[in-house]
Amino acid sequence: MNRYAYALAITISLFLTANVRGQGGSSGLYRSVLRIEVATQTPDYQTPWNSGRFGGGIGTGFLIGKNQIMTNAHVVSNHQRILVTIHGSPEKYPAKVDFIAHDCDLAIISLEDFSDFEDFPIFSLGEVPVLESQVTVIGYPVGGERISVTKGIVSRIDFQPYSHSRSDSHLVVQIDAAINPGNSGGPVLQDGKVVGVAFQGLRQADNTGYIIPTPVVKRFLKDIADGRYDHYADLGLSTFPLHNPAMRKALGLPNSGEGVLVTNVVPTSTVDGIMETGDILISLDGKTVDSDGKVLFDGEKVDLNEIVERKFSGDKLAVRFRRDGGWNDVEITLKPLPPSRMYSIQYEKKPRYVVFAGLVFQPLDTNLFATSKFTDITVRRLYSDYVSKGIFQEKKDIVMLTQIQPDPVTSQVDDFSGLAVDKIDGVAVRDLSHAHGLLYAEKPPEFHVIELYGARRPLIIPSAKVAEANLRVQENYGISKLYNLED
User: Fold this and answer.
1) Catalytic residue among 102, 103, 105, 397
2) Quick one: which of 15, 117, 414, 482 has the fewest CB in 10 Å?
């Protein structure tokens, strides 16, 4: 996902204070565009027992309701303290996160004391801006504390990756605007209404920024209306375009430009047991799927998943597909993709780990993969196939042996790190808690036998020496706690 975008703010090249005053100044709508200052604590997956790295950043938010400030999830992720300031005021107001959706990079925060904001205007949401129309972007770029404004032209409406989670794609609107950190979470206006939220830029291009359009924003707000965020539903299939005339003919399809080939169905997903690999997806919700996987939606050609994006778990969806030359019309009930935390960056969570006689075990996920850069082919295959091949049904975690702390007990096993655990004492490991239970059993065997994928021999640890090894390792490497299993 990194090659597409990085979480970065859309901002301006000038500080247009006079222009702000001309549009209402401190008594107008811009009062409700707020500067957000965040102190953060980011977990360290290489030393998971430590407190992590402390840092901070600046972002933007805006009022969408009484004591409801919308911003980006990446602005307030891993927060320890949030302070909000008003344009032109030195006072800082403590705030807290009420809702956060890392998959669509949106969050709602609220102030501990809203009394000074009671008479502030509330932003209303508009529609998706049309191509070539002008929008106004407002926020607080780094390098100054005053509000900034710029204008840009809508140049593209597309379905693209959201860089914050590194695993989710949604509708985006591309505009031509200068980019600098700090304006993330700011409102993008057209005719006085919010048509998007500034959230990321394109590393390879100048004067290019992306905004989260209102269909994504409205869906987020509707999702949290019941007091919790439930995430997106998903079809649970992969497709391949059908441009090639020879392939279409071989599949018995007319050269009509319709349909895509189903290349994988995720076990236990929405369409599992209904559709199969090799089916031809023809339409969703009554909208024809073209051979490029696009549908006509709101007057624009967008990715077929945009139809599912607008719906929620439990909603019904009409699907038409071909199989073996025959037509199939079914109604499916949408549900979320099976557990996919493997591929989403985790925030607001301390790393899980187990230390055992100098051996460090951690569950495989994107956070760990990014810091450890595993090269073993089996590990990479387990990572890539975890959801698509249904590995999650047997293993809640892929448990990794990530480190071997030097100690007399582990002096001959330094070549095992970076491998995935298959079995402990003959038992297939289901998850990290299961591994902990096997390693720290009340009645352990004389020797613990740890089998690793790709290793030609097992790793042997004498049980009688574990307690002393733990004490040495804790003292030598500053490990206060031997495990953290909290999910």
Assistant:
1) 105
2) 414
